[in-house]
Amino acid sequence: MAKIEQTTYQIPYANTVVDLRVDDQGEGQTFLLLHGGAGPGSVARFASLLSEKHSVRVITPTHPGFNGTTRPNELNSVRGLAQLYAELLSQLEVDDVTVIGNSVGGWIAAEMALLTIPHVDRIILVNAVGIDVPNHPVTDISKLSPDELMSRSYHDPKPFRIDPASLTDVQRAGMAANRSALNIYGGTTSTDPSLAGRLAKVSVPVLIVWGASDRIVDVDYGRAWAGAIPNAKFLLLSEAGHVPQIEKPEKLVEVIWNYVEEK
After folding, report:
1. How buried is 200 (Cβ within 10 angstroms: 0-12 exposed, 13-18 middle, 19+ buried)?
2. Domain ranges of the chain
3. How much is the pTM?
């Protein structure tokens, strides 16, 4: 197993400096992996799998405000996070980076694509939120019970269910903080009405992977992403929901690696 190094980088943003916690593992081709609203734990095992299976470097930041990290008031938007991660890649002096983002992490990745960052070679969106699609709203997870959220997030939620009574006070506080940070960055709708129109300017290659059983954002929503980005490739992943990196990690690694080798 590759050693995971956790480093806190000081990244300038607006009129402040952001303390950014980053997990870094492996060597070789660089992948920037951006987590969704469930926090960095939702991509941790997948990061290790990708790094070990293909001998690559995987960088996994924690969005400020998640998992007990600090978030300056100035950093309050998905576009801001995209700018933050563009500066991170510059500090790391890496090139030919593949950016992978799940859920709100996919939205951040799309905003990074619009920044035309020279370090970024390709973008992979996994069940991303962010665009406004008529008649296909993003589910408001703040109104869901933990059990309802699990049912909507997985093709088969049974292996992943957690008894709420088993959670510690620290875990509950962490989950509440994550939801609060998610709401600050994405708003109550987890969409930006301007995003779909701006995506026509994306020039880097984009793969959109969609868990076919996602009931947070449905398949037609995913196809709308593909329709908005020039030359984007769309791939449907069977027996997976909103978080394929948890439910079908081996299959998702295979899909990602096949796409990387094509390019």
Report:
1. exposed
2. 4-262
3. 0.96
